[in-house]
Amino acid sequence: xxxxxxxxxxxxxxxxxxxxxxxxxxxxxxxxxxxxxxxxxxxxxxxxxxxxxxxxxxxxxxxxxxxxxxx
Length: 71
Description:
Elements: E1 2-3, H1 5-11, H2 17-24, H3 28-35, H4 43-53, H5 57-60, E2 61-62
Antiparallel strand pairs: 1-2
Helix pairs in contact: 2-3
């Protein structure tokens, strides 16, 4: 899974990781891990992130289906 959080932060007034963390109720370290793809947020937190930026969920998170996986 990939995400556009870093880009969205900068296009929304250069929001800091700390500010995003505060607005969704997590630590700055959690935001860093999500941005780097090392941690996948809960569905609830994913929707909260999308709400902060006023965009649809799939504008924040993208799931890349592995090649050859027709499921």
